[in-house]
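hiii so um. not sure if this is the right channel but i have a protein structure encoded as tokens and i wanna go backwards to a sequence. like what aa goes where. can anyone help
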């Protein structure tokens, strides 16, 4: 059973004007698809691995043959990160968080504005390609962690709550080199309802 590309959970233009349809389409249909294809290609001679879930593969990379481990790590991470990213956004979302996640943010960062500033700073500080994540730590605290390239929280057994893709392919068409503008726009599509469900 091959890994398949999950359909985008909304229309290409659903996140306009904050996240443009052209970028969403190429990001999902080309970049995300490429990770799916490359992962399936890497696993094509390993049916014992190919039937496993992404999470199972990513938490048992020591069981992946050394010859394909880097390719599997990068591409399985790429699929997982993008699945999580698309499902962290939605049309008509944004605004301030409510409920459990709002309480967690206030407790960990002091206020939503302070959290936004810190998260932006972390996303801007990611050198090259990668991701900024809001993580629910084992002790219940919320923390911000960066993951380079296609490393992902599931590999470390971390509970992810929210992520922004800061690879240039995620924003270059609309924002060019201005990663800060992409981050500012992205807050308008963050799906806090989903983040709350991820809090458990
Ligand atoms: Mn991407």
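sure thing!! here u go:
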């Amino acid at each position: 059973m091959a890994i398949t590309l999950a359909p985008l959970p909304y229309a290409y233009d659903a996140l306009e004007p904050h996240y443009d349809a052209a970028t969403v389409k190429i990001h999902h249909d080309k970049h995300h698809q490429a990770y799916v294809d490359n992962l399936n290609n890497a696993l094509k001679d390993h049916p014992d691995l190919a039937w496993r879930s992404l999470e199972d593969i990513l938490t048992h990379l020591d069981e992946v043959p050394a010859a394909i481990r880097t390719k599997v790590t990068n591409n399985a991470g790429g699929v997982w990160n993008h699945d999580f990213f698309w499902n962290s956004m939605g049309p008509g979302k944004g605004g301030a968080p409510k409920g459990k996640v709002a309480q967690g943010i206030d407790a960990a960062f002091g206020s939503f504005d302070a959290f936004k500033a810190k998260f932006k700073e972390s996303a801007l500080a990611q050198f090259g390609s990668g991701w900024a994540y809001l993580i629910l730590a084992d002790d219940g605290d919320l923390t911000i962690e960066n993951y380079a390239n296609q490393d992902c929280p599931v590999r470390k057994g971390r509970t992810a709550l929210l992520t922004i893709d800061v690879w240039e392919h995620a924003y270059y068409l609309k924002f060019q080199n201005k990663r800060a503008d992409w981050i500012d726009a992205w807050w308008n599509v963050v799906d806090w309802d989903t983040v709350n469900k991820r809090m458990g």
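oh and Residues 27, 31, 82, 165, 167, 169-170 surround manganese (III) ion (CB under 6 Å).
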